[in-house]
Design a protein that fits this description.
Elements (H helix, E strand, L loop, with lengths): L6 E5 L4 H12 L3 E6 L2 H12 L5 E5 L5 H15 L4 E4 L14 H28 L4 E6 L12 H21 L4 E8 L5 H14 L5 H8 L9 H12 L10 E4 L7
Parallel strand pairs: 1-2, 1-4, 2-3, 4-5, 5-6, 6-7
The structure holds nicotinamide-adenine-dinucleotide (NAD).
Amino acid sequence: MSLKGKVALVTGSSQGIGRGIALRLAADGADIALVDIQAEKLAAVKSEVEALGVKATTFEADVSKRDQVYAAIDHAEQKLGGFDVMVNNAGIAQVKPLADVTPEDTDRIFRINVDGVLWGIQAAAKKFIARGQKGKIVNASSIAGHDGFEMLGIYSATKFAVRALTQAAAKEYASQGITVNAYCPGIVGTDMWVEIDERFSELTGAPKGETYKKYVDGIALGRAQTPEDVAALVAFFASSDSDYITGQSFLTDGGIVYR
Ligand code: NAD
């Protein structure tokens, strides 16, 4: 799957899955715009991307802020000379029983996980259309976007919402040659899961590491997922191999949720 000559922007790419996606798309030949709120960490990922022989640029932006997402795309186009692939990867988790969720909790997570994806979709599509070209939009959903998970109810709601946006955007932008798909990872050993495991410990008294182990033990293929596993699917959605696929939210979870 060659992405040579393409420009891809990845949000939430200072670590974890986003970093893995950036490195995979770079290995496939794309120039990469790295976008995150953690500016200092982005610099290290930029060096890793450049070591693969492609161009990279960094931009500090909070995806929950619409103007900042538009500015990030303008930056990518100016610095890298094009814009072809938008990966709306940035997201946060929240572990809480539904009974304890506050308006502040829902505001925060919906602004990042749902509004952030929406701003990414509309800003990317606007840019593709202005440039008179086709484009690829790839959004982060989750197994929690297919099944509601206990203690992760609001997080699950945001990831179901990403599937809805993915379907609606696919229909709205199909006539302009823009495809919109989502990837739905399972249990990936990133900082997000360190935090989820810790919150479960606090809430349930489970020893540290037990919740993560319990979920990993339930994976049919017998191991935790890596960012590289997720990035392989994103690379497919970013490439011309997926040109006839749009509006889909594919599970990549080693066998947890079956649809
Ligand atoms: P992570 O916490 O390791 O990384 C998330 C990245 O997003 C960080 O670099 C963080 O700085 C950035 N970020 C957070 N809020 C932001 C904001 N407002 N604006 C810009 N950047 C922001 O998490 P991860 O595991 O790499 O998760 C990446 C995506 O994959 C998320 O959308 C997550 O919901 C989804 N996902 C993760 C898993 C998993 O098991 N880890 C499973 C399914 C889906």
